[in-house]
From TrEMBL:
One of its GO terms (molecular function) is L-proline transmembrane transporter activity. InterPro entries: Na/Glc_symporter_sf, Na/Pro_symporter, Na/solute_symporter, Na/solute_symporter_CS, Sodium:Solute_Symporter. It holds the Pfam family SSF. This is Sodium/proline symporter. The lineage of its organism: Bacteria, Pseudomonadati, Pseudomonadota, Alphaproteobacteria, Rhodobacterales. It catalyses: L-proline(in) + Na(+)(in) = L-proline(out) + Na(+)(out). The chain crosses the membrane at residues 6-24, 75-93, 126-147, 159-180, 187-207, 227-250, 271-297, 317-347, 368-388, 394-415, 427-444, 456-476. It comes from Puniceibacterium antarcticum.
Length: 489
């Protein structure tokens, strides 16, 4: 490996650790600081932090890999995600920012739900914390798989060495600096990711051997006349399974927790505009990378054994070592931004919604911060064990965890913020139903084939079942103490 690559990567690692130290000195004195950065995030930081923690290695590995293999039809996932994120910013963000502070200054999603529905407070905190820890262990594993693939492909090292190295760097700045460190590193990482996704497709397309738009189109037409079609082979179920990825946004704790930390409700609109511009540019870059990367590989006889490594292969092949190192840093940024966010949210649930609730009700603020740090390490180690299979598919792991959160928490968050008739019993029913349906669907492999026909993405039945469970159980229950208007003080 050329020294220029190492220089760029070492500089990147040093920057991340430096941000962690800065955040440690700035905002880790109590649990609100450590878990939410004191609710004082700048709109730009909140926007890019939400985006970077959302997209992960999926943006640079999973999505380009899917497009590389199957063509433009795979772009429907990105389209669904874009509109889902937009609705999330409009519907959930302002309400969640206001209500989590109003309902006894809740610092976690489970705490908010418990405060919102006091008759089922303990059950909600326990069940939601369990779901968060389980699905985040899987979700975090997807990021570590990406780190392992990078290390194997680029550095010709052991897969698990890459997994543990990725985890080690993330743990360092997350444990030290908490939420502020994670948010600030996410901001920097989001900028790096977007820049890489602008540079890479353009260089691949217009490099001496790339051929430009016309030649790329001709090459792809020889591979498959319908490679650039958005509808080729697309069934109704296939379309719904792709675009309904957008439903997952409403229930992703590591994303919506950023809404809770924005400095004010008035700043949400600014954050939304910044975040959606970033997301639009980044998704277009990822689509271009997958499509133009396939054209480049075909024209130049490039063999790509694992489609999800197309970004890594082209970065190593086409750029000066210093730039290659920057691009690899972008991939690490995509991985680390999500892993750190997920670890912190999972650890906050363990600290606030389990340790404080069941083990030490009178725990001091300093004690909760310490427990949170230990929980970060614990969840990270479990995720690394799950990521132990080098044949793991990044997109597959992400899709399972995304569906689990989207179905369990999506309907719950939307209705708890907007429907005053909802009850604690309905909330518990929605949580359990959404998670159970997704787990059952995955176990039966119905996402691949359902009743002899095409598969159905598990978020669709899970989201619908959870929504219906909440409405039906709420209407049947009589918890009158919770029927307060949402604008009541």
């Amino acid at each position: 490996m050329q020294i220029g690559v190492w220089i760029s990567l070492i500089a990147y690692f040093a920057l991340m650790l430096g941000i962690g130290v800065y955040a440690y000195r700035k905002s880790t004195s109590n649990s609100e600081d450590y878990l939410l950065g004191g609710r004082n995030l700048h709109p730009a930081v909140a926007a890019l932090s939400a985006g970077a923690s959302d997209m992960s290695g999926w943006l640079l590995l999973g999505l380009p890999g899917a497009l590389y293999l199957s063509g433009l039809v795979e772009a429907w996932i990105g389209i669904g995600l874009f509109f889902g994120a937009l609705v999330n910013w409009i519907v959930v963000a302002p309400r969640l920012r206001e209500q989590t502070e109003r309902y006894d200054n809740a610092l976690t999603i489970p705490a908010f739900l418990a405060n919102r529905f006091p008759t089922k407070a303990t059950a909600l905190r326990l069940v939601s914390a369990i779901i968060i820890v389980i699905f985040f262990a899987v979700y975090t594993a997807s990021g570590l798989v990406a780190g392992g693939k990078l290390f194997t492909t680029v550095f010709e090292g052991g897969y698990m060495t890459g997994v543990w190295l990725t985890l080690g760097v993330v743990l360092a700045y997350t444990v030290i600096g908490g939420f502020l460190a994670v948010s600030l590193t996410d901001f920097v990482q989001g900028c790096i990711m977007m820049l890489a996704l602008v540079i890479m497709p353009l260089v691949v397309l217009y490099s001496g051997q790339g051929g430009g738009f016309d030649q790329a189109g001709e090459t792809l037409a020889q591979v498959d006349p319908n490679f650039l079609s958005l509808t080729n082979g697309l069934t109704v179920m296939g379309f719904l399974s792709a675009v309904t990825w957008g439903l997952g946004y409403f229930g992703q704790p590591h994303i919506i927790v950023r809404f809770m930390a924005i400095r004010s409700v008035a700043a949400v609109a600014t954050a939304r505009n910044i975040g959606m511009v970033w997301m639009g540019i980044s998704l277009l870059g990822a689509v271009g990378l997958g499509v133009f990367g396939r054209a480049y590989a075909e024209r130049n006889g490039l063999v790509v054994e694992d489609a999800e490594t197309i970004f890594i292969v082209l970065a190593d092949l086409l750029f000066h070592p210093l730039v290659t190192g920057f691009l690899f840093a972008a991939l690490l940024a995509a991985v680390m931004s999500t892993v750190s966010s997920q670890l912190l949210v999972a650890s906050s649930s363990l600290a606030e919604d389990f340790y404080r609730l069941f083990l030490r009700k009178d725990a001091t603020e300093g004690e909760i911060v310490t427990v949170g740090r230990l929980a970060v390490v614990l969840v990270g180690v479990v995720a690394a064990i799950i990521a132990g299979d080098p044949q793991s598919n990044v997109l597959g792991l992400v899709s399972n965890a995304w569906a689990g959160f989207g179905a369990a928490f999506g309907p719950l968050i939307i209705l708890s913020l907007s429907w005053s008739r909802m009850t604690g019993s309905g909330a518990v029913a929605g949580l359990v139903t959404g998670a159970a349906v997704v787990i059952a669907w995955i176990s039966l492999d119905w996402s691949a084939s359902f009743l002899g026909g095409p598969g159905v993405y598990e978020i669709i039945p899970g989201f619908i079942a959870a929504f219906l469970a909440i409405v039906v159980v709420s209407l049947m229950s009589r918890e009158q103490g919770e029927f307060r208007a949402l604008n009541a003080k």
